[in-house]
Inverse folding.
């Protein structure tokens, strides 16, 4: 008996009795794509990042020493929200179109997605303009100002980055360089975009619903 | 075939053959390194850069110990001292620990899973250069703009930079900004590496290597990367908040406007505690590869080791406020963190027992990597036990912010982590360079450093118990602190001598060390199946594996691992 | 500093003279016993294994039996530590509540501590006293305790109040009030210092707690309550104090000086040290301090006063009467 077999018998382990061939290796050897695992990892780290800003926001609800206070000055950004969340739908459809090789449909849906993202940014900019110049709320006014601009601003930065990436793909599409082969990469970008939209849902609830009571 | 390491590789023979290499002009060799995306080169660059900063931050520590050797030494002013302690701590964590340890993972993970490179080689290079420039920025602060009291420029707020000391009224000038910006840059680099490691481990394994057959080191790299992904963002977020406070007048930590100083502490330690596990998990990884090879036994309890490591990673996310036991949390709050802290000691202890179980009944070869690994086991045991003492909140009320804590964490950082870094260098240097390090010099390095380490850090525990707080530039005579401090400072000399021997050994062995061949240690994981140093593409043929120790299977066809796993 | 240091009672974490510190020390001994036992057992096993299973020259070149693991052993060395942890957690939680959730008995002395960069302000709101750097508290009889209940606040950054023989440390955090208590049952002078890094002179933010029997404590309180008496011989020095910037930072009861940025100096000469422990309280040291505090405590926030030698002499003479 070999040393391993003696050990196995001593400890009453189950031996692959008498087998002479090693376990079979699945053929083809399939692993998750690195783009997928990479994007999941990126989304995980960004989630941790946003969680801290949301935590700070929630911690400071009701703690501002001076006005203005949220319920006085905030109004639901409904149109912006509808646009951003719809863009999740359009990007999903676009991604599916590309997987099926429907380049023209993909391009149209992709453009709509980009436009909706840009609208969200414009809408956010308009709201900030109102808050800064008409209401007098800045990041230094009070704790509400600090947490509001940092949280909404951080999200807007991510929408901007996403929009730039979408614009880049748009340009490449117009140049005819995007084909069905790139479907997986487009899907990964769409995951990022879905993440940004999911964060907006959390931000919306935290700032405009919970925080504005 | 299997033979004892000593037969195949006697201690006293030195070979003077030089490795053959095509001599390229310096400019093109530099260009190759600066533009590389190869995980092996980038790994070595991380390790090399980290070792350089280790020497710099080590000199800073030596200066600190010189100042504290006697009361009122007057060697440096309080301002200079406070900058020294800040830079020493910050550099050791972000410019030494993180790069060296992730550099090892960078180098080893693709080799151990039979892959050609990491999942995203260009991201790897991007991460390195971010780290590189971030780290230069930190030390640039010494010559950059004005700082605290305008008298200096390097940050002087301690490595954890508590608010509101870091807010503009108490931290004039730009010194604190250097601390923030350099770490922000370096952290993005680390996050990039973490994403890369996870994607690699999940998506690039060679045929046959199911997750269940990955080497323990690769599992630990995944856990480590996962922790980095979740723990680094809180620090970056808090730093951005601090920047907003300092530059845009925000009030995150502005206590005058109702802001909370404790919020900084919470965010920092939500990062800070997992960070120390990010630093120690690679030490566990090295131990899990080295101890089996030098005990000639498979690791005891592979599944339990993996599970315990995942448990450690997970629990470590919920213990952070044990760094805040003295801030006045409620009794219930303190009780919760005592419990979670104590719980994390269980999987940690299990790992020590499993390493012991690996050695037990084996055939232990006391070569240099194993010497450092055995010292690691003893020292990590002690560090864990003083950690338990600190986890007992009321005891912590006496011990926190004293030299007892300093001794505890240096026991982990040096006694456990640095010792395993040394072990890893002695073990994998032959793979990376094709040459062995010298065993005799290794012995000198080991003993000098061991003696110095214990002289310094054993005694500092008692300085803390005698009432010496941390981060003080001097102390008064007649308080019973003199002998502890003097002995601790003398220990630095031994450690420095050990380091000199080590550096000398590396430089000499690079030129004329004995040729290593593919597999000098008679080991069992895939990196030992390719040349030393490996070719750029790593493996001539994609390996196919059937067990956790592919080379054991090849060397013992009558008794392969896959029969017993 | 020799004389001032010689007065200090020796000992630290394991020489408690007050209930919170004793409770901690008792728990600490228990934990040390457990951890030391664990250390003995595990390190013995490690040492044994290195010696017993060491590869010896001349052994056959054969690999030892490969042991892949053992579920019963894993269970054992998981369950036993769990039990040990359980016991440690329970005893720890008990001590946490004993110390933190203690109720204040009637007759406790109240002190409000305000941390500054780099000195301690001590207010006794019930007794109408404000002093600095030296805290006087009455002896507490374990049978009829008269503890001192302390509230901790900060005027600037985070500090920490630590006198190891009396209690564990508690932080002073701006915009937050923390509480702690002590009930020293042995008279003496106990040394502590700030234990949270607070800037340049963090190292020189020493605390002296003077524990004295009730009659002496009451005597001290009475003396502290007095405003200063006007003394013609040093009137010139008082004038220097009131007409220079001194008055904007310091208070001396009975004069026009009501500043609160720096320590209350009404009874400066009743304290043993200057600058929160940086030097003994002598005329010479006081003169150097007032001339330029940075000579003794670089980074201290009090500026050099730039007085003429004559004014300085008169001022220090007058300050010498602030007993």
């Amino acid at each position: 008996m070999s040393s391993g077999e003696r050990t196995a018998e001593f400890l009453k382990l189950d031996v692959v009795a008498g087998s002479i061939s090693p376990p079979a290796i699945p053929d083809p050897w399939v692993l998750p794509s690195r783009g997928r695992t990479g994007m999941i990892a990126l989304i995980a780290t960004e989630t941790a990042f946003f969680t801290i800003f949301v935590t700070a926001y929630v911690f400071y609800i009701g703690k501002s020493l001076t006005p203005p206070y949220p319920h006085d000055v905030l109004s639901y950004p409904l149109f912006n929200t509808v646009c951003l969340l719809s863009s999740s739908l359009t990007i999903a459809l676009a991604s599916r179109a590309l997987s099926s090789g429907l380049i023209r449909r993909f391009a149209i849906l992709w453009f709509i997605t980009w436009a909706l993202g840009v609208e969200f940014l414009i809408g956010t900019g308009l709201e900030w303009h109102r808050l800064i110049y008409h209401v007098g709320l800045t990041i230094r006014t009070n704790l509400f100002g600090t947490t509001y601009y940092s949280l909404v601003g951080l999200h807007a930065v991510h929408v901007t980055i996403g929009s730039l990436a979408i614009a880049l793909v748009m340009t490449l599409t117009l140049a005819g360089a995007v084909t069905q082969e790139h479907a997986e990469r487009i899907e990964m970008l769409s995951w990022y975009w879905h993440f940004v939209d999911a964060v907006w849902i959390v931000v919306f609830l935290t700032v405009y619903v919970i925080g504005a009571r | 075939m299997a033979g004892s390491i000593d037969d195949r590789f006697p201690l006293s023979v030195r070979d003077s053959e030089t490795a053959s290499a095509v001599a390229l002009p310096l400019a093109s060799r530099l260009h190759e390194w600066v533009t590389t995306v190869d995980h092996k080169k980038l790994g070595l660059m991380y390790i090399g850069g980290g070792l350089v900063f280790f020497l710099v931050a080590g000199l800073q520590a030596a200066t600190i110990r010189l100042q504290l050797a006697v009361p009122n030494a007057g060697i440096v002013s309080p301002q200079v001292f406070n900058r020294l302690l800040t830079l020493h701590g910050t550099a050791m964590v972000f410019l030494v620990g993180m790069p060296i340890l992730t550099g090892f993972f960078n180098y080893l993970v693709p080799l151990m899973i039979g892959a050609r490179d990491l999942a995203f080689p260009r991201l790897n290079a991007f991460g390195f250069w971010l780290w590189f420039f971030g780290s230069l920025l930190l030390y640039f602060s010494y010559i950059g703009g004005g700082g605290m009291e305008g008298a200096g420029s390097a940050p002087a707020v301690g490595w954890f930079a508590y608010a509101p000391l870091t807010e503009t009224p108490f931290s004039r000038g730009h010194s604190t900004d250097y601390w923030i910006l350099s770490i922000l840059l370096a952290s993005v680099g680390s996050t990039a590496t973490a994403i890369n490691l996870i994607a690699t481990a999940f998506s690039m394994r060679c045929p046959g290597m199911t997750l269940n057959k990955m080497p323990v080191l690769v599992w630990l790299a995944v856990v480590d990367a996962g922790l980095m992904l979740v723990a680094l963002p809180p620090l970056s977020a808090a730093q951005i908040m601090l920047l907003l406070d300092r530059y845009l007048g925000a009030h995150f930590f502005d206590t005058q406007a109702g802001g909370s100083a404790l919020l900084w502490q919470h965010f920092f330690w939500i990062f800070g505690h997992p960070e120390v596990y990010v630093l120690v998990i690679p030490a566990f990884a090295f131990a899990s590869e080295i101890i089996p090879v030098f005990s000639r036994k498979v690791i005891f309890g592979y599944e339990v080791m993996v599970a315990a490591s995942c448990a450690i990673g997970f629990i470590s996310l919920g213990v952070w406020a044990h760094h805040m036991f003295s801030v006045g949390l409620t009794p219930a709050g303190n009780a919760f963190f005592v419990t979670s802290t104590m719980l994390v000691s269980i999987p940690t202890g299990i790992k020590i027992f499993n390493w012991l179980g690996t050695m037990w009944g084996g055939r232990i070869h006391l070569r240099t990597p194993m010497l450092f690994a055995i010292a690691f086991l003893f020292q990590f045991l002690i560090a864990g036990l003083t950690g338990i003492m600190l986890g007992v909140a009321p005891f912590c009320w006496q011990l926190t912010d004293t030299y007892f804590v300093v001794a505890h964490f240096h026991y982990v950082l040096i006694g456990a982590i640095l010792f395993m870094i040394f072990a890893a260098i002695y073990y994998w240097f032959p793979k990376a360079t094709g040459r062995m390090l010298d065993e005799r010099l290794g012995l000198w390095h080991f003993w000098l450093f061991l003696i110095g380490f214990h002289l310094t850090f054993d005694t500092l525990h008692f300085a803390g118990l005698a009432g010496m707080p941390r981060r003080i530039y001097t102390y008064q005579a007649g308080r019973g602190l003199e002998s502890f401090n003097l002995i601790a400072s003398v220990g630095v000399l031994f450690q420095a001598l050990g380091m000199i021997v080590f550096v000398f050994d590396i430089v000499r062995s690079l030129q004329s060390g004995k040729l290593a061949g593919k597999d000098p240690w008679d080991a069992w994981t895939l990196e030992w199946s390719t040349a030393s140093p490996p070719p750029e593409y790593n493996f001539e043929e994609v390996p196919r594996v059937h067990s956790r120790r592919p080379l054991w299977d090849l060397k013992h066809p009558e008794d392969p691992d896959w029969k017993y796993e | 500093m020799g004389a001032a240091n010689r007065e200090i009672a020796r000992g630290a974490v394991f020489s408690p003279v007050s209930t919170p510190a004793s409770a901690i020390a008792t728990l600490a001994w228990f934990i040390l016993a457990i951890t030391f036992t664990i250390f003995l057992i595990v390190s013995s096993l490690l040492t044994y294994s290195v010696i017993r299973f060491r590869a010896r020259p001349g052994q056959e070149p054969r690999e030892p039996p490969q042991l892949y693991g053992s579920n019963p052993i894993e269970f054992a060395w998981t369950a036993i530590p769990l039990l040990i942890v359980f016991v440690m957690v329970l005893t720890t939680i008990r001590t946490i509540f004993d110390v933190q959730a203690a109720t204040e008995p009637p007759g406790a002395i109240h002190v409000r501590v305000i941390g500054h960069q780099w000195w301690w302000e001590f207010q006794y709101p019930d007794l109408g006293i404000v002093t600095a750097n030296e805290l006087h508290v009455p002896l507490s009889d374990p049978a009829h305790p008269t503890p001192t209940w302390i509230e901790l606040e900060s005027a600037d950054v985070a500090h920490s109040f630590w006198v190891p023989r009396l209690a564990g440390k508690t932080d002073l955090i701006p915009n937050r009030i923390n509480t702690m208590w002590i009930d020293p049952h042995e008279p003496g002078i106990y040394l502590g210092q700030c234990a949270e890094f607070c800037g340049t002179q963090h190292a020189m933010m020493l605390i002296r707690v003077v524990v004295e029997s009730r009659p002496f404590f009451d005597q001290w309180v009475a003396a502290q309550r007095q405003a200063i008496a006007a003394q013609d011989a040093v009137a010139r020095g008082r004038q220097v104090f009131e007409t220079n910037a001194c008055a904007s930072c310091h208070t001396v009861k009975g004069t026009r000086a009501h500043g609160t940025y720096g320590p209350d100096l009404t009874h400066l000469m009743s304290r043993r040290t200057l600058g929160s422990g940086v030097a003994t309280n002598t005329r010479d040291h006081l003169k150097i301090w007032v001339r330029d505090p940075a000579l003794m405590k670089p980074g201290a926030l009090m500026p050099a006063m730039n007085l003429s030698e004559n004014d300085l002499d008169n001022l220090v003479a007058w300050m010498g009467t602030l007993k």
Observations:
- Helices of chain A lie at 3-10, 34-59, 70-73, 78-99, 103-135, 143-174, 183-210.
- Chain A has seven helices and no strands.
